[in-house]
Automatic annotation (TrEMBL), chain B:
<dbReference type="GO" id="GO:0005524">
    <property type="term" value="F:ATP binding"/>
</dbReference>
<protein>
    <submittedName>
        <fullName>Molybdenum ABC transporter ATP-binding protein</fullName>
    </submittedName>
</protein>
<dbReference type="InterPro" id="IPR003439">
    <property type="entry name" value="ABC_transporter-like_ATP-bd"/>
</dbReference>
<dbReference type="InterPro" id="IPR005116">
    <property type="entry name" value="Transp-assoc_OB_typ1"/>
</dbReference>
<keyword id="KW-0813">Transport</keyword>
<dbReference type="GO" id="GO:0016887">
    <property type="term" value="F:ATP hydrolysis activity"/>
</dbReference>
<dbReference type="InterPro" id="IPR050334">
    <property type="entry name" value="Molybdenum_import_ModC"/>
</dbReference>
<dbReference type="InterPro" id="IPR004606">
    <property type="entry name" value="Mop_domain"/>
</dbReference>
<dbReference type="InterPro" id="IPR027417">
    <property type="entry name" value="P-loop_NTPase"/>
</dbReference>
<keyword id="KW-0997">Cell inner membrane</keyword>
<dbReference type="Pfam" id="PF00005">
    <property type="entry name" value="ABC_tran"/>
</dbReference>
<feature type="domain" description="Mop">
    <location>
        <begin position="293"/>
        <end position="359"/>
    </location>
</feature>
<dbReference type="InterPro" id="IPR011868">
    <property type="entry name" value="ModC_ABC_ATP-bd"/>
</dbReference>
<feature type="domain" description="ABC transporter">
    <location>
        <begin position="2"/>
        <end position="234"/>
    </location>
</feature>
<dbReference type="GO" id="GO:0140359">
    <property type="term" value="F:ABC-type transporter activity"/>
</dbReference>
<keyword id="KW-1278">Translocase</keyword>
<keyword id="KW-0547">Nucleotide-binding</keyword>
Length: 229, 362
């Protein structure tokens, strides 16, 4: 395999993992953000702490905990293995790691957006006959779209850049679990690999910057529409 | 269609404990700010869980804290118009209206979007965004949106309170149209503005400190001397109905009431129309003999029905003029000097300025 092909493989895998992680995390993050912003329930502080934990734990610890839970010899890992789903040392494990690491960022952005929506608008929608799900879909969601976009971009960027938890949980197998950051790290381990590392650094920087620009553009368009100009 | 409710709710050192009924027409809930009016509206609409209470519309129980019944707001079908219009900022006016219509029960009867647009004069606003509307326009759209959800009843929580005088005048005719029009929708109307209530309400409920102090037909409650302190001495006064006879070239209009004729400036209703006059108690002067040579020509023979001393130096006098009732506010000293007692006849002088254009309706 040429060095270039390995880089492109890593890029493809990273994009694949990040897209999956983001798509899977959005609904869950929205739900948790809504729970934290709008509901009062027993264990809310605990949920909040759990969501934010990956932000403060060393990523390698998170990866290790994932390995403990989903490894082949762990009960959860065995159960999933039985239905043909293997997470450890598999790209789907990288997706899980990316979801968990990006989750606090996504939830935080979405929660702030939901808290900024006047609950009186939601009340008004309910008095018009809209059930709770419809109120969320037709009133809350359109109003928090900029926040959802921001959270999504952050989650995506985090998924693209996640390294510690991923390499601990799924290792660094070229073509299978080697994401862009893992490949950069691997290239830097080889004498004379800097050249290849630099091209991959440029790739990942370009993706991160364009993601932020795109979300800014979309958020601005949404905000404009809401302001009615 | 009748709504009956009893509520008991305690919050922030304030206790609400009341029972009332709202039948057809406009039932106004009057009280100073903090009297608990909005709490009533929110409990009826389902936005607030009262400590204890029961809300029944027709035969359907919407809330019964003892029986563990709580119908969520979206199933109550009580259209609500709030003081802050609460239009959805991301939707155009037309889309806001459609939001109301979308959740109207299938097969329910009620106005169509075209009816509502015509009734409320929204034709030119449909493509606008809520952020670009004036306060009065927003309130018209909010009203239209509520109507299109085909509610069984409208709840209005101070819908005009955040509007200035001219904007209020812009909305009031629409509310009158709603009351008198073919929709025949019952309305529970919360307000702390006596002029709105005098103009709109059929039934009046006075609330103070979380309790109902008086309730009954508007004309009765407004003419009740005991209601004077509740409404405020400057705002209290009877509401009577009058027929517009003719407009003079000098801007003075002749109106007929059951006890005679009145001549008033600034009446804009057409000849033949029936209007409401609000006669402030402090603007009615009493005289034992028919006065001569007065600048006011509006003198009515009246009978004293009751003398109601107030807490201060004033007293409220209930009067009967023909089939109508009036209130006069005089000093306790004047009561003694004139020897005002129930049953005696005298003359009520109404100042020509008594009736402001804003207090005339229907």
């Amino acid at each position: 395999m040429t060095a270039d092909a390995a880089a492109w493989d890593a890029l493809r895998l990273s994009l694949w993992v990040a897209v999956w992680a983001t798509l899977l995390a959005i609904p869950l993050a929205l739900w948790v953000a809504w729970l934290l912003a709008r509901r009062d329930f027993w264990g809310k502080a605990l949920l909040n702490a759990a969501v934010h934990l990956p932000l403060v734990l060393p990523p390698v610890v998170t990866g290790y905990l994932l390995l403990m839970a989903f490894g082949r010899n762990a009960p959860l890992g065995r159960a999933l293995d039985a239905i043909g789903l293997q997470l450890a040392f598999h790209w789907s494990g990288a997706v899980l790691a990316a979801i968990i690491m990006g989750f606090p960022l996504m939830v935080r952005a979405m929660r702030l957006a939901i808290e900024a929506v006047d609950p009186k608008l939601e009340d008004a929608a309910a008095t018009l006959g809209a059930p709770r799900v419809a109120v969320f879909a037709r009133v809350t969601l359109p109003l928090i779209l900029p926040g959802v976009l921001a959270g999504t971009v952050m989650g995506f960027a985090k998924a693209m850049g996640e390294f510690g938890a991923t390499i601990t949980f799924v290792a660094n197998i070229p073509g299978q679990t080697q994401t862009l950051p893992s490949a950069i790290w691997a290239a830097l381990q080889i004498p004379g690999g800097e050249g290849q590392a630099v091209s991959m650094v440029l790739m990942s920087s370009a993706i991160a910057v364009s993601a932020v620009l795109l979300s800014e553009l979309l958020a601005r368009r949404v905000a404009k529409r809401i302001a009615g100009t | 269609m009748t709504l009956s409710l009893s509520l008991s709710h305690r919050f922030d050192g304030f206790a609400l404990d009341l029972a009332l009924e709202a039948g057809p027409g406009i039932t106004a809930l009057f009280g100073r700010s903090g009297a608990g009016k909005s709490t009533v509206i929110n409990a009826v609409g389902g936005l607030l869980h009262p400590d204890r209470g029961r809300v029944v519309i027709e035969d359907e129980v919407l809330l019964d804290t003892e029986g563990g019944i709580y119908v969520p707001p979206h199933k109550r079908r009580l259209g609500t118009v709030f003081q802050d219009a609460r239009l959805f900022p991301h939707l155009s006016v037309a889309q806001n209206l459609m939001f109301g219509a979308r959740y109207a029960p299938r097969g329910s009867s009620g106005p169509s979007q075209r009816d509502v647009v015509a009734l409320l004069g929204l034709e030119t606003l449909l493509d606008r965004a809520p952020a670009t509307l004036s306060g009065g326009q927003k309130q018209r759209v909010a009203l239209g949106r509520a109507l299109l959800s085909h509610p069984r009843m409208l709840l209005m929580d101070e819908p005009l309170a955040s509007l200035d005088g001219p904007r209020k005048q812009e909305i009031l005719p629409f509310l009158e149209r709603l009351r008198d029009g073919p929709l025949g929708l019952p309305i529970l109307y919360v307000s702390h503005a006596v002029d709105e209530i005098a103009r709109l309400a059929d039934t009046l409920v006075l609330i103070q400190n979380g309790k109902v102090q008086a309730q009954g037909p508007l004309f009765d409650v407004m003419a009740d001397p005991a209601a004077v302190p509740l409404l405020g001495v400057r705002e209290a006064g009877a509401v009577i109905e009058a027929d517009v006879l003719e407009h003079g070239n000098d801007g003075i209009t002749t109106l007929r009431i059951s006890a005679g004729e009145l001549e008033l400036p600034g009446v804009h209703a057409d000849a033949g129309a029936r209007v409401r006059l609000r006669v402030l108690a402090q603007d009615v002067i009493l005289s034992l003999t028919r006065p001569e040579g007065l600048s006011s020509v509006n003198v009515l023979p009246v009978t004293v029905e009751a003398v109601h001393p107030g807490d201060g130096p004033g007293a409220a006098i209930a009067l009967r003029a023909g089939r109508d009732r009036l209130l006069s506010r005089v000093t306790a000293r004047a009561v003694a000097e004139l020897g005002l007692t129930p049953g005696m006849t005298c003359y009520a002088i109404l100042k020509a300025t008594t009736v402001a254009p804003g207090s005339i309706g229907r």
